[in-house]
Amino acid sequence: MPKREFIEKMFDDIAPSYDKLDHILSVGIDKNWRRKAAKMICQSKPSKVLDIACGTGDSLVALAKSGIKDLTGIDISKKMLGVAEKKLKRKHIDVRIFHEDCASMSFEDETFDAVTTFFGMRNFEDKLQCLAEIRRVLKPGGTLAVIELSEPRNKAVKSVYRLYFHHFTPWVGGKVSGNKNAYRYLPGSVAHFPQPTEFMGILRNAGFTNIKHKPLSFGICRIFICKK
Question: Phi, psi (5° rounding) for residue 47?
Fold first, then answer.
């Protein structure tokens, strides 16, 4: 099936167990990555922020806790959004969330001061189309922050990472979620994501400027920040 439909179905299938597995498999460090990214995004003091591929809402929680008041989230998985709605309500966080594809968004031009996507860019079928849409809905001078998993460059760290991510992750993910294929897809999608220099070139070709890149946890996670 087309990648968009495959991704939507996959995340619908694993939505009930997603949060539990996410925190187990990352040993909880994913929360720290989100906090650091939210703090970096807030340096430009955006008042209106769109979070793309918001999933179960952990990124929205991190952004809200960093002080951002006007938040909107979108995702293609209705079941992930259902989990997010319950979580945000439980935490008394007021966020608008919509079932939308970032390749064709319903928002007007120049709506947001910042756009974020936490661990979602590698799943986008047409990255250039999505980046064009992101640029369209950003205000002039607005900030785009892309947070993604990546393979570390250090050889020792990389060997441990590959053993854990390519073998342990699918086994545990399959046992808990009942969908081993989804957790085989995860390491594959990270391995096929463009290297930092290449991705910065993609951002540049999409019309973004002032592109900066920061590795976290030996390069297992990377933050890309740029301007419209």
Answer: -100, -30
